[in-house]
Amino acid sequence: MHRFVHSLLVCLVVVSLGACRPTTPPPPTDPPTNPPADPPPPPPPPPVHEPVKNKELMITDLSVVNDARATGPAGVWSFGGLITAMAGPTAPGTFVKQWLLKWDAAQTINTFPVARRASIRSLVIDPWKARDGQAGATDAAWVPNLANAPFRLLAIVNRLDLNRGDGAAVVENAGEGRFVFGVTDNGGAPLQFTVIFEYEQSATDRAALRGWAQQWHALGTQAFGPGYNTALQQITDRFSGANKAPAKPNGSPLNQIRTNEIALTSPWELREFHIVGSQLQEVPAAQSPDNSLQNTPRLAKFVNDNEADILDRNFTIPAQFDGAAFQAGSSLVPFGFFWRAPAVANNEARHIVSFTSCNGCHHRETNTTSFLHVAPRAAAAEAALSGFLTGVTVTDPIAPATSRTFNDLAERAENLKLLAGEPGAIRVNAIRQSRRSRVH
Predict the structure, then answer these.
(1) What is the model's pLDDT at position 318?
(2) For residues 282, 285, 286 and 292, what is the CA-based torsion angle, rounded to 10 degrees?
(3) pLDDT for 105
(4) DSSP helix/strand/coil, 193
(5) Is the pLDDT of residue 428 over 60?
(6) In the Cβ-directed half-sphere of 53, how many Cα atoms lie within 13 Å?
(7) How many whole angstroms separate alpha carbon 222 and alpha carbon 438?
(8) How confident is the model at residue 438, as a pLDDT?
(9) DSSP assignment of 84-127, as one string?
């Protein structure tokens, strides 16, 4: 009995010291946690929608063009703000003054004379000097105040349809973004004078091209107002901001400035300017033969010699052809103008050359009786658009039995759907072909 009690006491002591354990392993001190939850599903793709032309392609709404970004003295959409961004090392006032004075002197461009348009002084330069408080200043002494610039924003334009590449792997750019301005008189009334700033949208691969398209396309899902304008500025800053293209003159993505006016004198005249060195210089008008070639055998020879490429819309008006200057110094548009030439073998080729030129596109080939595709506007009015942009049927001026229907914004919308990856894009090949050799 004594021996049993002794053994029991020993066992109790051992248990208290932890030596007597069950033979089965103990449960883990940290029980396993529940398996991780499934990751959240990716956000749904943006809703499929048809391009909204006045929000994604041709933006003329007053809530945009009269926004402080467009009307403020240093607004990023204002004439002065854009000039400042592209002027590079040159003082912005000097940069714009040297540009305006181009109209006040006769020039020779690609051997062709470009006449002085002296009214630039009485209609634009002198009133601007007066607003600056420098009415008596010489041109050399005048320091333009860009806050007084007589330019009113008419439209912000998406020209992704002008993208360059092979339609597959090769992408050279994502077309252009543009600002269209109208010149105003000293009282703020619109003059028949428009100025377009045309900027490259940089892209070197299909992903970047689609990114531009999707960003423009997303604007169509927003209501006009502050949020819309902020989203639009995020796009425009990419192509119009300072130093956005370090490899180009002044670091500016500007491709060219184009002007179209009859305010200075008749007839209508279109001019083109590039940044050369660090200044704006006048250059030949793209895709435009000189008016001296109207109805000449040399123009007919160009059309006939290049018929296949012209019909494929894959041609360029060269500076020289057949041993002599060919491309226009400026493009004049007399009333009723369209390009014609004797003994052209294919009238469709004639039409394409005429339509892709500055003066043909802005008049008879598209029935643009106002000579403008975006019209100057009063401060409280939205800019009117031509039938070429919104829809018009035009009889061929050479072959009255032939008619063509234009609705360029509709074609641009289909192109945007294609580039943004929207289902249902149609007429892909026809649209891509119709955009080649286009500059307008």
Answers:
(1) 98
(2) -150
(3) 97
(4) strand
(5) no
(6) 12
(7) 30
(8) 85
(9) HHH-TTS-HHHHHHHHHGGGGS-EEETTEEE---THHIIIIIHH
pLDDT band (50, 70, 90) for residue 440 = confident
CA distance 264 to 361: 21
Chain-centroid distance of CA 29 in Å reads 67
What are 259's two structure tokens?
């002007």
Distance CA 295, CA 339 (A): 7
Element (H, E) at 159: strand 151-159
CA-to-CA distance for 308 and 8, rounded, in angstroms? 113
Closest by Cα among 437, 330, 351, 426 to 395: 351
d(CA 114, CA 315): 25
Side chain identity at residue 252, one-letter code: S
* Matching residue, tokens 């045309």: 198
pLDDT of 1 strictly over 80: no
pLDDT at 37: 58
Structure tokens at 438: 């286009």
Q: Looking at the predicted structure, is the pLDDT value of residue 316 above 80? A: yes
The dihedral sign for the CA sequence 322, 325, 330, 332: negative
| First vs last C-alpha separation in the chain | 117
How, if at all, do strands 107-109 and 320-321 pair?
Answer: unpaired
Is residue 96 within 8 Å of residue 146, measured between CB atoms? yes
CA distance 405 to 285: 26
Query: Looking at residue 395, what is its pLDDT?
Result: 97
32-56 burial code (b ≥16 CB/10 A, e <16): eeeeeeeeeeeeeeeeeeebebbbb
What tokens were used for 368? Answer: 């643009």
Residue 167 structure tokens:
């339609």
Q: Give 3-35 pLDDT, tens digit per residue.
A: 433 443 333 333 333 333 444 444 445 544 455
Phi first, then psi: give them for residue 127, nearest 5 degrees. -60, -35
Please tell me the total number of residues recorded for the chain in this structure: 440
What stretch of H or E contains 4?
Answer: helix 2-16
pLDDT, residue 437, reads 82
Token pair of 20, please?
A: 């007597």
